[in-house]
Design goal:
alpha/beta; Rossmann fold; 8-stranded mixed β-sheet
Length: 346
């Protein structure tokens, strides 16, 4: 599918679909990046569906506690829990997954919403470029580490579990450079300081959103059809969000003024954007097979970008998957057994 900037503008001007609802009694929901914006609003919607447990994974304890109080105040739901997680630190991700294995029990819905946007190169303590680690590598790491809990819940339930990876419609507008597509280790190239020039960093957020779509589709290809788990990517749309706080903190510029104008003309509220996450998490239950590996836009499962569907896209998808698994095997010794026990060769 090809989608232009005009298509996205039209989407933003159309009536926003209503939020979907479901009976989540007895189920466990985990929302990563739940303290602000669409993650917080999605958590409120989940709270109104009364799951047995709603776990908010946040980097800041203070902001997490504030979100917890706001959800309880607005929804009169007291099943929220705050767990601390920093995707910019692989050790934090591993500790979180270990804690969930011991204390979390089965997991019915996972929403990987946390992400960052910046235009300067900044490495994490693990040595990776920050956007690449937070938006993609750490997101993939936690998603894979939680597969046993997701599958266990699906096997005990009448419906498959859902893994929702929050991506973006900007994946329609990015085609990796020829050098990246030709590389046997595109992630290593993208994460290198030499590659992360100011020019290349302008497209890094777009690239990370494309990588998320590739991850969802690659994972789906490797899940047996009988495995009770559906992985879905979701586009929350252009919303008012703390994601762009990098821009808000900058001194006045024409670029900043342009962003503020675009927000005033086009942006949805965070609550409206969160409805797409909810659709990805509970929608389409009448045709689960069509949901697997799907992409949600305006509360509908739609076709992804032409590049993703192309031969070159399939080749890059497999290359990135293999490199991702190789990298994450070096981060956690649990990745290899999970890949062996739960996934197959496509």
């Amino acid at each position: 599918m090809k989608r232009s900037m005009l298509d996205s503008v039209i989407d933003q001007w159309l009536v926003v679909p209503q939020v979907e609802t479901a009976n989540l009694s007895g189920k466990t929901v985990l929302v990563v990046g739940a303290n602000v914006g669409i993650g917080l609003e999605a958590s409120k919607h989940f709270a109104r569906m009364r799951p047995a447990r709603l776990i908010l994974a946040c980097r800041s304890e203070a902001k997490g506690k504030a979100a917890l109080a706001e959800i309880e105040r607005e929804t009169v739901y007291n099943g929220c829990e705050l767990w601390i997680l920093d995707l910019a630190n692989f050790a934090s991700v591993i500790a979180f997954a270990d804690k969930f294995e011991k204390e979390g029990g089965d997991l019915h819905i996972l929403v990987m919403n946390a992400g960052i946007l910046q235009h300067v190169y900044q490495p994490t303590t693990d040595g990776w470029e920050s956007i690449l680690q937070v938006n993609y590598l750490a997101t993939s790491l936690l998603s894979l580490l939680l597969i046993p809990q997701l599958v266990a819940a699906g096997r005990k339930s009448s419906t498959p579990s859902r893994m929702v990876i929050v991506s973006s419609g900007v994946h329609y507008w990015i085609t990796p450079t020829e050098e990246v597509r030709a590389s046997s280790k595109p992630l290593e190239m993208l994460g290198s300081k030499e590659w992360c020039t100011p020019e290349h960093m302008q497209s890094r957020f777009f690239e990370s959103m494309l990588l998320k779509v590739l991850f969802v589709r690659a994972l789906t290809d490797r899940l047996q059809s009988i495995t009770p788990l559906s992985a879905v990517a979701a586009n929350p749309g252009f919303c008012y969000s703390q994601l762009r706080r990098f821009w808000y903190e900058q001194p006045f510029s024409f670029a900043k003024m342009g962003l503020l104008i675009r927000e005033r003309l086009l942006a949805w509220t965070s609550e409206q954007g969160s409805r797409q996450l909810i659709c990805a998490a509970v929608g389409g239950r009448d045709n689960e097979d069509s949901v697997k590996g799907g992409f949600v836009n305006r509360s509908r499962f739609v076709e992804v970008a032409d590049f993703v569907l192309s031969d070159g896209g399939h080749k890059m998808q497999d290359t990135v998957w293999n490199e991702t698994i190789d990298i994450l095997k070096g981060v956690s010794d649990k990745i290899a057994p999970i890949v062996q026990d739960y996934l197959i060769r496509p």
